[in-house]
What does this fold into?
Amino acid sequence: MVKICCIGAGYVGGPTMAVIALKCPEVEVVVVDISEARIAGWNSDRLPIYEPGLDDVVRQCRGRNLFFSTDVNRYVGEADIVFVSVNTPTKTRGLGAGKAADLTYWESAARMIGDVSRSDKIVVEKSTVPVKTAEAIEKILAHHGRGVRYQILSNPEFLAEGTAVQDLFCPDRVLIGGRETPEGQAAVKALKDVYARWVPEDRIITTNLWSAELSKLAANAFLAQRISSVNAISALCEATGADVAEVACSIGKDKRIGPRFLSASVGFGGSCFQKDILNLVYICECYALPEVAEYWRQVIGINDYQKSRFVNRVVSSMFNTVAGKKVAVLGFAFKKDTGDTRETPAIDVCRGLLGDKAVVSIYDPQVTEEQVRRDLAMKKFDWDHPRHLQPVGEPAGQHVIAMAPDAYEAARDAHAVCILTEWEEFRNLDYSRMYDAMQKPAFVFDGRNIVDPEKLREIGFIVYSIGKPLDNWLKDMPAVA
Ligand SMILES: NC(=O)c1ccc[n+]([C@@H]2O[C@H](COP(=O)([O-])OP(=O)(O)OC[C@H]3O[C@@H](n4cnc5c(N)ncnc54)[C@H](O)[C@@H]3O)[C@@H](O)[C@H]2O)c1
Ligand SMILES: O=c1ccn([C@@H]2O[C@H](COP(=O)(O)OP(=O)(O)O[C@H]3O[C@H](CO)[C@@H](O)[C@H](O)[C@H]3O)[C@@H](O)[C@H]2O)c(=O)[nH]1
It folds into this structure.
């Protein structure tokens, strides 16, 4: 029986291994983690991450050929194939701070593999890493000696949260990079055989190691660039009276552009886009390519601009002050169908509102009060460390932040509603009921373009929707930072 062990039971390690276990019943899959709480969660009825369809997959194979354990040494030692899916945060100190990937967890996992291995292993990079990381891990393992032979593969993950199970069942492609030696190619084949159990062969791409590593960073940079492009156009739409949805629809009809991933928003969030672009920027700088670095940095620049532009709209529309005013925030997760709040635009928007002394009332169907308080207290990039190692600052005060049990409670007595996550339930709220319970004039700031501005205006709201023709009220109040 082939034995697989995955180091890191997070958003990637957990779902990916669950699907491998489901599709390959003859393979034993063990997911290990240094976090006892995470592993306890995976072994319980309430999984540590919310992902549609995941409960069902885990239920089918946990205890059969899927196991979760904190006994890292034992299961790594026994495995034929070791996936490494640990955190690769952005460095906050020292060389490359604010850009470079912090490979502390990665390196400690590599050293541990070297320490406990007594049999040959294929080591698979699942984490997103800088180009040439495979060379670093080869060096670490080579120096451990003991006659154990290792093959390093790059097999980056492309799943998106909220659709992880679907993405894993039916990926656009699986990418496997390996050394161009007979041993390297044999390792590539061994991993390919695992995926080939359910992924059509023509979707399994094999490349050299560096192409695979770079493809992951490039894919995320391209995706994020699309969002920054449409968001940049959204600002111009507001200035000119064009409608960003109509522009996106028109340009998306061009097959060379395509219709997906063109929704203007309050900004992209999530654990990957910003981090991976910063990583790319740093690599470009290291290879003396400052123009290329600057090009990609601007994708993040526009994203930051979009978030602050949104806050400025809110504050300027409400007579340039939100001090003491209740503002309802609907949605805190970085996108719908996930409870993940890593790098969510809601953090920056809430901080901006709190900076202007608003009283913020938040409702999100999947995010807890504890998580919101941690997020608002944490410094930039600190969220990307294992939870029990995250440094947390002074939590935001009880009097300025409150969690509401539902959207109506959040909006009661509020001056404004800000929609920051595109949860389906926010499309179908009874906005008349909400309006009746709010202060007047009542505002809706739709950061996801999910409500019909005309219908809301009929109710009486003053409405701002990203990239849509502006309400007369807003035209008179330019949002200047
Ligand atoms: N989240 C995504 O959608 C996504 C998608 C593709 C790629 N990635 C990449 O995958 C990697 C993991 O991301 P994630 O979202 O799963 O992170 P995560 O924080 O959810 O999970 C990482 C886990 O690794 C554990 N860990 C860290 N060091 C360890 C060690 N030495 N031994 C054992 N366990 C250790 C942590 O406790 C944590 O549970 C990152 O490089 C990320 O960029 C993430
Ligand atoms: O048209 C769009 C599409 C997305 N977003 C936002 O962009 C962010 C990222 O969304 P998405 O890419 O769907 O989710 P992630 O889980 O962050 O997935 C991305 O990051 C992963 C981690 O590297 C990759 O594996 C995936 O392929 C890549 O899509 C979210 O805040 C979305 O709301 C928009 O604003 N407009």
